[in-house]
Design brief:
By secondary structure, the protein is mainly β. It is globular.
Length: about 130
């Protein structure tokens, strides 16, 4: 019954920006940490970013620090991923996830640590 619905994906040129949104409904509560994973064709699903239930702390994949920013608006039950300086290597399906705990896992969790997943949104970075 828990629903996570992503939006905002699409085609963007290298160096461009894109903001993904994830709206939660049903029995998804704002006291759960949330985050994003991504999966490119022929690769394993990889961690992108996570944020605490309160939004006061976040962590990122090392390769994405400084380019991606995760945030959340608990009043709207929505989490965002702002992606800047996009590269072709960022092309992937991006998934919104909700963790079982309210804090950030350190080291970051794997996909098995998350109970709920969105359907994914395609991000393509190409000229």
């Amino acid at each position: 019954q828990v629903q996570l619905v992503e939006s905002g994906g699409g085609l963007v040129q290298p160096g461009g920006s894109l903001r993904l949104s994830c709206a939660a409904s049903g029995r998804t509560f704002s006291n759960n940490a949330m985050g994003w994973f991504r999966q490119a064709p022929g690769t394993e699903r990889e961690f992108v970013a996570a944020i605490t239930w309160s939004g006061d702390d976040a962590n990122y994949a090392d390769s994405l620090k400084g380019r991606f920013t995760i945030s959340r608006d608990n009043a709207e039950n929505t989490v965002y991923l702002q992606m800047n300086s996009l590269k072709p290597e960022d092309t992937a399906v991006y998934y919104c996830v909700a963790d079982r705990v309210p804090y950030i896992r350190r080291p970051p969790g794997t996909y098995t640590d998350y109970d709920y997943w969105g359907q994914g949104t395609q991000v393509t970075v190409s000229s």
